[in-house]
Design brief:
Two copies of one chain form a homodimer. By secondary structure, the first copy, chain A, is of the alpha+beta class. The first copy, chain A, folds into two domains: about 45-160, PurM-like, N-terminal domain (60s Ribosomal Protein L30, Chain: A), CATH 3.30.1330.10; about 170-340, PurM-like C-terminal domain (Phosphoribosyl-aminoimidazole Synthetase, Chain A, domain 2), CATH 3.90.650.10. Helix content of chain A is about 35%, strand content about 25%. Chain A has ten helices and 13 strands. In chain A, the strands form two sheets. Chain A has a seven-stranded mixed sheet with strand order 8-10-7-11-9-12-13, with helices on both faces. A six-stranded mixed sheet of chain A has the order 1-2-3-6-4-5, covered by helices on one side. In chain A, a hairpin with a 6-residue loop joins strand 1 (about 35-40) and strand 2. Chain A is globular. The two termini of chain A are about 20 Å apart. Chains A and B meet through helix 1, strand 2, strand 3, strand 4 and helix 3 of A and helix 1, strand 2, strand 3, strand 4 and helix 3 of B.
């Protein structure tokens, strides 16, 4: 096999992790095209062809890594595959207009199953006012492969990247955190119960909200409109796919800044708290590292403090510091604990 | 498993084939966005944001379906994954400026292997003057997954789709046909020999050209420049990924036209002819259905006949007819045989 090299020259991917691998692979990337406004390292690439800037984001969803078909209904999966990509466009403060969908299928799928998947894709397109304009359908020798590309636009003056956070800016987050991760724990537990005794029906009562947060995802397009209406701009923004800690560290790295966030300010839904306690997990850890919330994390000038306070779904969770101060969580006890990037480390 | 339905309601994907599946899935797709110029059904989607039209194409390459790592070196694979997507932009008469690359990897790959793949990707970017601006890296539980999105632009007045072929237009093709397919046959045979006796070294002498055509691919950007220099426009164009027969039928369907092409006019390299004979295959069949040539197939007004004759790498292979005349190959014997779409039918 051509990918084999002698052990001496072999570096294992799990020793690098996702972010290490991306850093390593992209360090030699040079940009030469006049129309390239922004390349790798943000939620979406930015391209200019004379008018509005074009935003392009792409995400790969692989069976067994990003989803488990034994509990992710195909319709939900199609919906989520589209919305998480729209979320990347939203994270640049842009409007998504088009998506392209590539699907790799094995013959264990029937036409009806594929149509169910497509219904979810088309429902998401309808919900978000987005056109499905292309893609690719092929067979797969292994699991289901979903590859979505989202295309959007933004007035160049309203583009928000990860790199503009300034010392003293407020750190804000929309919605609540950790719910999608805890929904996954509930689903995984019920799958285990079912595998041990197929007579058992899944017990999801009381957990519907967090299960829904896991199985579908919504892109916060409402925030892009709200920023526009209020005529304000975040200084940096990212969508929460990897988890608050990792994603805040992405902003810190890109902005060459530090951050201080407060445990008591983290928005956690009561259902998520209950689930965390049932699984003997710390709700704060789930909020920091859970991932897949697809809420927006942004930094913004303190001048907008009062306005932000009026928004029912925005929490101010901390502030931006100098980079040499690092990125910390301040516990309820007053102690400081450094934030750590977890990200997806599937390479094991 | 959620994708299982009762047999009565189950339609097998292999009964539909790739094109049937795509037709079925995209029949309900509506376009609502002002900026969408062209949606599914061509080589790339077309989006307008006020200036030049933006072209977006995406292709999924899956291990075991589109490539076999036992004979496709990773560097070549990375190169080809980029160039086949640039080829889709070229097929719209556009210029490619950016690519995004999504990679799904399992831990059987080392960092060095992934870097080799990336070298091929970056080499293709350099060769074609294209920026790598984003993507996604994730783990895969099964084989290697490569998902490339190419972004380009075109002056709206120079956009060429599949749908403009007119009765009487010339049908032209660049380069030669069937070489990539026959290169694959050589590689597959040598793999078999190796599996039976690992002492055997692969015998590729004499076949280097067609093996190269299989392992790499070049996008015909030179033609886009030539059309510009000559100030002429094809009426319809497509790149040859599925094979001449399938791809010409795509043009016929989109243009509501028929076609007549001539066996004696099909450009086939002598090495490909030799290989076909060695494999007891008909060179014409390989040229018609081989696929992966990534040459351009286009229709163009007869007014340009003399100019086209001066181009050393364009063959005029036939002409466009009324749609009720169907699409035929005229054999050397004078007999007519209808063209059939083969495409990729991996669903078995």
């Amino acid at each position: 096999m051509s990918e084999k090299t002698s052990d001496k020259n072999r570096t294992e991917l799990q020793d690098l992790g996702e972010f290490g691998l991306i850093d390593r692979l992209t360090q030699g990337v040079e940009l030469t095209q006049k129309s390239t406004v922004l390349g790798v390292g943000d939620d979406a690439a930015v391209v200019s062809n004379g008018g509005l800037s074009t935003l392009i984001a792409k995400d790969l969803l692989l069976e067994g890594v990003h989803f488990d078909l034994s509990y992710a209904p195909l319709q939900h999966l199609g919906y989520k595959a589209v919305t998480v990509n729209i979320s990347d466009i939203v994270a640049m403060n842009g409007h998504c207009h088009q998506v392209l969908v590539g699907i790799g299928l094995s013959n264990r799928f029937s036409l009806e199953a594929v149509e169910t998947l497509y219904e979810g894709i088309q429902f998401a397109c309808k919900q978000y006012g987005v056109d499905l304009v292309g893609g690719d359908t092929t067979s797969s020798q292994s699991g289901l492969v979903l590859s979505v590309t989202a295309v959007g636009s933004v007035d160049p003056e309203r583009l928000v990247t990860r790199s503009g956070a300034q010392t003293g800016d407020l750190i804000c987050v929309t919605g609540n955190l950790g719910a999608a991760y805890l929904g996954l724990q509930v689903l995984a537990r019920e799958k285990q119960v079912f595998l041990e005794n197929s007579e058992m029906q899944p017990q999801l009562e009381g957990f519907e909200y967090i299960v829904k947060r896991q199985l579908t995802a919504e892109a916060r397009v409402d925030l892009v409109h709200w920023f526009e209406q209020q005529n304000i701009l975040p200084t940096a923004m990212i969508d929460l796919s990897d988890g608050l800690a990792s994603d805040l560290l992405h902003i810190c790295k890109a902005s060459k800044a530090g951050a201080r966030i407060y445990q008591e300010k983290l928005p956690i839904d009561p259902v998520a708290t209950d689930a965390a306690l049932e699984f003997k997990m710390d709700p704060t850890t789930c909020a920091l590292n859970g991932g897949e919330d697809y809420e927006l994390l942004f930094t913004i000038s303190q001048d907008h403090y009062q306005l932000l306070e009026t928004h029912p779904d925005i929490s101010i969770i901390g502030h931006v510091t100098e980079s040499d101060q690092g990125a910390d969580l301040v516990l309820r006890s007053g102690e400081f604990t450094p934030l750590k990037a977890q990200g997806w480390n599937h390479f094991h």
